[in-house]
């Protein structure tokens, strides 16, 4: 069926709305109108007013509220009517009386009684997108709205402002102005903009994988003793197989915690400290590369934020790696205590994150310092990039999909820097550890994918926090 609707955008300060109904639907419609324009001329008629709606109305004293049944006199000085009641008889009465006065009506969830629809709205400053499914599936419109809210960058409003200035100050004729504006907005061509990043991540991952496997095989195995090698695989490989499986299961179900889970588990088994972080980052580099590539492909990466995190993050990762190599060899007991204390703090931070309520957006400052700190602590502690950087950005009210996507892609470069540093300083003496983590994680991946979304995020994060704190405390007690 063809959709014959004609979309328009109304200047609501020039219109007078009547909402009939004060329940859940009435709350939704009133909130929608106010969110678009707090100064909307609005009258509400309802026998019962929901307490949540009453709280909203207290903030807008200019709204006229009449707690009574609908009467045709209520249509005086009204331009548009929204019926927010599940009483079909009332809806039909309102529509009949309103249409008799040439007033258009929207009846919630009753398409046959609608003269117009209220679409799902995407707001990004000056940019506004209205989505309609011709009254057939409001839930699809809602999901599309959520998708576009996440995909469209918050900086789009700044871009619109700058383009408006250029448009107003442009001295050329219409065709010249159009050509100039088209060239400036060509960056929105996703097919062009994603190629370089996707190719870069893929090539680096492939080269490093080939380098690592080649070096490991040449330094650990020779063709003549390959057979005996299989029969003499050290116990640590099987331990790391289990650690990698468990850590990936946790990370897949929760969305964070791979590094910190591996780190605390490996400390319990007495793995050499530099080998802990080096192994984790080498194993994690492959998963973060694939993850970052996927997020970029689906438009979940903010380029400006990516550069602001990745560059200082790489510097921090190299610094943390070198410091750990030195301290881990010279001051093992002290370093164990520092790392256990660090993981304990991360566990507490995870608890705070689990109970964190949704907060309003705040201006983000010190992104470079955040990236450096996250990279340094991640390399030095064997994990924590996600709990440190992701939780900080989310606490500032940033969109979760963009935060996760951008942080995941930045993590690839951070783990790459840490891996190369450990690789240069330590070689691949910890090759069995890395192999165990990679294979264990690979086996767990499909199970983790099935768990993702099925376990409440709050419960899952608290579970990870509990394990991290338990492991950390056990290590500290053992040391002191």
TrEMBL record:
Keywords: Cell membrane, Membrane, NAD, Oxidoreductase, Porphyrin biosynthesis, Transmembrane, Transmembrane helix. GO terms for cellular component: plasma membrane. NCBIfam families: cysG_Nterm. Residues 125-146 form the Siroheme synthase central domain. It comes from Chishuiella changwenlii. SUPFAM superfamilies: NAD(P)-binding Rossmann-fold domains, Siroheme synthase middle domains-like. The chain crosses the membrane at residues 200-224, 236-260, 305-328, 334-355, 402-426, 432-452, 459-477. Belongs to the 4-toluene sulfonate uptake permease (TSUP) (TC 2.A.102) family. Pfam families: NAD_binding_7 (PF13241), Sirohm_synth_M (PF14824), TauE (PF01925). Its main location: membrane. The keyword Transmembrane helix applies. This is Probable membrane transporter protein. GO terms for biological process: siroheme biosynthetic process. It is a multi-pass membrane protein. It catalyses: precorrin-2 + NAD(+) = sirohydrochlorin + NADH + 2 H(+). One of its GO terms (molecular function) is ferrochelatase activity. InterPro entries: Met8-like, NAD(P)-bd_dom_sf, Sirohaem_synthase_central, Sirohaem_synthase_N, TM_pro_TauE-like. It is found in: Cell membrane; Membrane. Pathway: Porphyrin-containing compound metabolism; siroheme biosynthesis; sirohydrochlorin from precorrin-2: step 1/1.
């Amino acid at each position: 069926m063809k959709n014959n609707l004609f979309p328009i955008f109304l200047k609501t300060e020039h219109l007078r709305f009547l909402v009939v109904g004060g329940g859940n639907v009435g709350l939704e419609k009133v909130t929608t109108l106010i969110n678009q324009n707090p100064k909307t001329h609005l009258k509400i008629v309802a026998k019962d007013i929901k307490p949540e709606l009453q709280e909203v109305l207290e903030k807008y004293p200019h709204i006229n509220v009449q707690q009574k049944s609908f009467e045709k006199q209520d249509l005086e000085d009204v331009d548009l009517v929204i019926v927010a009641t599940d009483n079909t008889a009332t809806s039909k009465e309102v529509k009949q009386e309103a249409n008799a006065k040439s007033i258009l009506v929207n009846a919630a969830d009753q398409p046959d009684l609608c003269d117009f629809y209220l679409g799902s709205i995407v707001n990004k400053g000056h940019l506004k997108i209205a989505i309609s499914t011709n009254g057939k599936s409001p839930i699809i419109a809602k999901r599309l709205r959520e998708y576009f809210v996440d995909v469209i960058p918050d900086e789009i409003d700044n871009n619109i402002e700058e383009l408006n200035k250029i448009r107003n100050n442009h001295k050329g004729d219409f065709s010249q102005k159009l050509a100039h504006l088209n060239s400036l907005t060509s960056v929105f061509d996703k097919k062009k903009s994603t190629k370089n990043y996707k190719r870069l991540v893929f090539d680096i991952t492939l080269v490093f994988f080939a380098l690592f496997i080649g070096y490991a095989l040449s330094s650990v195995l020779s063709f003549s003793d390959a057979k005996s090698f299989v029969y003499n695989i050290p116990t640590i490989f099987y331990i790391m197989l289990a650690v990698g499986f468990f850590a990936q299961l946790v990370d897949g179900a929760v969305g964070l915690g791979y590094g910190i889970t591996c780190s605390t588990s490996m400390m319990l088994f007495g793995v050499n400290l530099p080998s802990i972080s080096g192994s984790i980052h080498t194993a994690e580099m492959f998963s973060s590369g694939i993850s970052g590539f996927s997020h970029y492909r689906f438009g979940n990466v903010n380029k400006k934020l990516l550069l602001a995190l990745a560059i200082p993050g790489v510097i921090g990762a190299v610094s943390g790696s070198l410091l750990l190599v030195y301290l881990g060899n010279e001051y093992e007991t002290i370093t164990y205590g520092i790392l256990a204390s660090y993981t304990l703090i991360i566990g507490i931070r995870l608890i705070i994150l689990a109970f964190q309520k949704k907060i309003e957006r705040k201006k983000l400052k010190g992104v470079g310092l955040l990236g450096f700190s996250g990279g340094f602590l991640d390399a030095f502690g064997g994990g924590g990039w996600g709990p440190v950087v992701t939780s900080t950005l989310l606490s500032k009210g940033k969109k979760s999909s963009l935060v996760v996507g951008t942080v995941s892609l930045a993590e690839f470069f951070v783990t790459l820097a840490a891996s190369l540093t450990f690789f240069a300083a330590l070689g691949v003496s910890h090759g069995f550890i890395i192999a165990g983590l990679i294979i264990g994680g690979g086996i767990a991946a499909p199970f983790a994918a099935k768990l993702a979304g099925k376990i409440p995020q709050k419960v899952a994060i608290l579970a990870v926090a509990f394990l991290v704190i338990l492991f950390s405390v056990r290590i500290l007690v053992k040391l002191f």
